[in-house]
Amino acid sequence: MNRRAHITGWGKYVPEKVLTNHDLAQIVDTSDEWIVERTGIRERRVRGENDTTTSMAAAAAREALAVAGLEPEDLDLIIVANSSPDYLLPSPANFIQHTLGASCPAFTIAAGCSGWVYGLATGHQFIQTGVYENVLVIGVEIISHALDYTDRTTCVLFGDAAAAVVLQPTTEDAGVMTFELGSDGSRAHNLWVPGGGTVNPVSQKVVDNREHYIRMNGQEVARFAMRKLMSCLSSITAQAGITPHDLDLIIPHQANLRIIESAAKHLGLPMDKFFINVHKYANTSAASIPLALVEAIQEGRVKPGDTIGMVAFGSGLSWAGAVVRMGVRETELAHVNGNGHVKVSI
Ligand SMILES: CC(C)(COP(=O)(O)OP(=O)(O)OC[C@H]1O[C@@H](n2cnc3c(N)ncnc32)[C@H](O)[C@@H]1OP(=O)(O)O)[C@@H](O)C(=O)NCCC(=O)NCCS
Fold this sequence. Notes:
This protein is an alpha/beta fold. It folds into two domains: 4-171, 3-Layer(aba) Sandwich (Peroxisomal Thiolase, Chain A, domain 1); 176-337, 3-Layer(aba) Sandwich (Peroxisomal Thiolase, Chain A, domain 1). The protein is 32% helix and 22% strand. It contains eleven helices and 13 strands. It has helices at 21-25, 32-39, 53-68, 92-100, 115-128, 152-155, 204-208, 218-239, 257-267, 278-281, 288-298; strands at residues 4-13, 18-20, 43-45, 77-81, 106-109, 135-141, 161-170, 175-183, 191-192, 215-216, 249-252, 307-314, 318-325. Strands 1-7-6-4-5 form a five-stranded mixed beta sheet, with helices on both faces. It has a four-stranded mixed beta sheet with strand order 8-13-12-11, sandwiched between helices. β12 and β13 form a beta hairpin. α3 crosses α4 and α8 packs across α9 (257-267). The chain is globular. The chain starts with a strand and ends in a 21-residue tail after the last strand. 52% of the residues are buried. Mean pLDDT is 94; it is low at 335-346. The structure holds coenzyme A (COA). Residues 30, 34-35, 38-39, 113, 152-153, 156-157, 216, 218-219, 221-222, 225, 255-256, 283, 313-314 line the site of coenzyme A.
């Protein structure tokens, strides 16, 4: 019998504080018009005083656990996709595990914006092999801490958020059907933080040169993103014996609406096949795909039995995609329409 990881719980946390394009235009030489025209972003959330990577992740996780009808002690594994930890050591997964009151193993995957899909594939492996039953996969970023608010080419693009899913086994025709993970380290310097690591440790010079902030070659990353969105979508669907046209919904990494529109045009896919929330949150890195998935479910865009394609891309340069079939039984998505937290039966 084919055992797969199946999504049975979902939750999100976005900080209350909204930073609009107009707010940014007061800080750097930009405009709402430029940002909307080039990226589709209108606003993003930024962490409030009390928001930490741990607190945001825990809030999203608690919601996901409630939807799945699980308690923290039921968890066998916590995987956290994150590149903006509260502290350099230990990994944020440990703080999150403790805050949730879980006693299972926990670790962090640092694969930039692709991290959560890497986490989904990893959680799927532990479930498929029969090792674990209940796996929590969180994507969380306080990316605003790594933004140079004097650099208009990067600071307008990102926002903070957290989202989480619970994975449990199923032997039905549902769950993670296929995935692809990729890395091209030869192009790593196109999106990186040059200072603060062991090669170029924190120093006055690093701070003066603003090397502790994200640097990006936007055009190079945009070309890579476009190519990978198309090729990864094609390859994960081909593995599943379908084409991108057969997908009920596509959840692309929410980095830039223009990249998504361009890929859709090249693939001959209508834009209404894509779930979009980049206008509200900008690029929330590892939180981007799960946040879009959670909102798609909560807005009723996902029906029982739907087949969803997800593709992420980002620093590394990395990419990751997965085809996931949602619960095939009506009861499993019963709470989609706002009926509160319904225990999921699989
Ligand atoms: C960043 C990005 C939107 C820039 O769009 P673009 O059309 O490539 O713009 P360019 O970089 O060619 O810059 C064009 C001009 O706009 C300017 N510009 C850049 N950011 C600006 C901003 N926020 N406001 C106003 N002008 C801006 C540039 O300085 C440049 O001016 P110049 O011609 O006088 O030098 C685009 O490259 C992109 O989306 N890249 C991928 C980013 C991404 O998704 N990264 C994360 C991946 S996980």
